[in-house]
UniProtKB/TrEMBL annotation:
<protein>
    <submittedName>
        <fullName>Uncharacterized protein</fullName>
    </submittedName>
</protein>
Amino acid sequence: SALRSRIDQALNNRELEIWYQPVWNDDSGYFRRCEALLRWPGESISIQEVIDAAEESELILRLGEFVVDEVCSFLASVPSHQEDLSVSINISPVQFHYQNLEHLIKSSCERYKLDPKRLMIEITERTTIENAELAGKVLSALKQMGLDLALDDFGTGYSSLSTLHELEIDWIKIDRRFVQDIDTNQNSYQIVNALMRMAQALDIRVIAEGVETDQEYATLRSLGVRMMQGYYHARPMNQQQLLAFLKG
Ligand code: G
Ligand code: G
Ligand code: MN
Ligand code: NA
């Protein structure tokens, strides 16, 4: 397709960038974790459309390699006083099928002399359904390397308690849609409340996504949420901006 060939060109010309959105930790009062997010400066097309198009071909594998390489190279270069910074990377379900993720991440960490503990993997419920068995094997290898595992967009799909348990999920990221109307919709409020209790019982940590207002922040705190990611605390930013942001 036309879009796929533009993505192909963008990869060749290194037009794509990785931006980083800091995650707020209410306990420490620090940002020490962030999510890597693909960006295409100068293009108005949404990144979701880019990912969807890339997933129809082997382009998603090249994109995936680019993201891992870029993130490892960045983390290896951060100043020594910020060496506790860690980054989570979104992984497409397609990558589990057609890419040796374990090898990709291991070799990239070796190339940049990076401790794999500084990486986290974000998968969606799609991965746990479409490739359950294969994904389980790969994820368990990655966990042995020291990576943390997060289930993204939580609450929108079909993950069961047994999935969380079997895959040894360390984090769940509560989907933005529940945060968005947590102060106006009793259902959303009760769902987040229930998710928090479940996470505590299973010893899984929680990040709330899409926190935009003071009120949402306060409500989430009252429900015991400690980690938050959203425009209220920080927007996605490029490498230079992130380093300045963390310093300031
Ligand atoms: O940042 P934004 O809201 O535009 O991202 C849109 C979607 O694209 C989100 O679902 C996000 O998870 C996904 N996404 C962003 N960066 C990456 C990436 O590097 N790899 C994959 N597979 N998905 C990404
Ligand atoms: O699917 P995933 O959770 O990986 O995507 C996260 C996306 O959410 C990022 O692409 C980011 O741009 C977007 N995002 C992060 N914080 C906010 C927020 O506070 N509001 C909105 N509307 N989007 C956000
Ligand atoms: Mn994500
Ligand atoms: Na998400």
